[in-house]
DNA sequence: TTTT
DNA sequence: TTTT
């Protein structure tokens, strides 16, 4: 059993890539999930300029990845059901890097904002950068 | 909403530390959570010497931390309910290191093995090393 | 482990009552939670006039019950974290009736509509009907 | 989102039936899920002869239903991931009966007891009673 | 109608 | 750095 359920907001527009081999779509984004804090504790953290949310790297595969890229944008509220996965890879300096991320099995849109045109210009062809399979240090 | 539910086995005996200020107990361990794989996929990964489990750093606070240290041991099966948290700290080289870990709100023991005496000798006073508050790079 | 997570909409304004003994607040409402159906299956059910949602009786206690009564209304979207409980009681005919309901431990508001004034007039003093402890066949 | 996670013990051997049309397997059993009680509260309930567990009707479909029937038995510990569903049907007296049950999407065995031969004799061909589709008032 |  |  490895179950994760999150409700949070995208910190940026989602990124969309395609695996070179089979063209499988992969979307990644970070969710800001508010910590469940008392009013006092929240204010204390804000005054110390410490984060009052957890920031969780999220990965979506396949058809849902495309839906995310098409309909989600920075700030939008979503519910994610998935699992936590750990991966490791070797970086340029030959160090082993360990990654923990949420693999979304389902993404439920909780807001249907002003569509995707609101995304920044620089996103226009973001979705079409093919990536190398062994090279997804998200 | 930030909810995690895991069922897995401890990869080692749990570690127990105490915060210097108030003496709060903190227990940490890694859970090996089997990936939900088809028989074929599992065999494939085993033949490639790739892991068939996810390894998830888990932190428990307070009274439950002490219970974990007292009753759990390497290999024991537990269910954990908690949340995912992200933290960052600066390491000795001045690099910002980002950590993702599961903070357990409840740990349910699913096996009551051959008690804790089975732990290795070197564990005997493992539980009493006080640590510095800013120095918990688990 | 007894964990339930729901995202759904209130089918009516919440009801609020107070236990006679200690005045503890109890709020109850039913959540309509969309079934996760394919487009085809959904259409099929709609044509047969069968429900495409599950209707789940939900109970909230204490301070959160009052918040629900004050800020929620029919149609509002919420996330609920809680547990399933079973109860039984004897009805007027002396039959044992079995009830299954969701006890909410946390209710997260996902929409902040046009406030609570929109509630129907008949709700105005709904919140102040005391009830007998043994007589909560919700 | 309609998510349920339970860890509990079967109150009886699972029942196995087959839908008349297509022969789909359906297994049903009740899980006793311990309430998360303080020691005092637990003792209090026991002295009053009140249950300290919730009893949750669980339904499993297809291949997993057969696995449950083959490998589970009364008292065995399992983890269930699924959803809550509500149904209604008309009973012999023409009354509308409302049912709430857990539909298991995954059943994880947490104990591998003394096999299934331990089941009572009367179970021997329990699994082969075909049932009428409209007649599953579990 | 309830399990360890 | 990984468990059965």
Automatic annotation (TrEMBL), chains A, B, C, D:
A Pfam family: SSB
A Gene Ontology term for the protein's cellular component: nucleoid
Source superkingdom: Bacteria
Biological-process GO terms, alphabetical: DNA recombination; DNA repair; DNA replication
SUPFAM superfamilies: Nucleic acid-binding proteins
Summary of the function given for this chain in its UniProt record: Plays an important role in DNA replication, recombination and repair. Binds to ssDNA and to an array of partner proteins to recruit them to their sites of action during DNA metabolism.
Gene Ontology molecular functions: single-stranded DNA binding
UniProt keyword terms in alphabetical order: DNA damage, DNA recombination, DNA repair, DNA replication, DNA-binding
UniProt cross-references to HAMAP family, sorted A to Z: SSB
PANTHER family in the record: SINGLE-STRANDED DNA-BINDING PROTEIN
Motif (Important for interaction with partner proteins): 133-138
CDD domains, per the entry: SSB_OBF (cd04496)
Lineage of origin: Bacteria, Bacillati, Bacillota, Clostridia, Eubacteriales
Assembly: Homotetramer.
Annotated region (Disordered), positions in chain: 117-138
Full protein name: Single-stranded DNA-binding protein
Listed InterPro entries: NA-bd_OB-fold (IPR012340), Primosome_PriB/ssb (IPR000424), ssDNA-bd (IPR011344)
Tagged with keyword DNA-binding: yes
Source organism of this protein record: Senegalia massiliensis
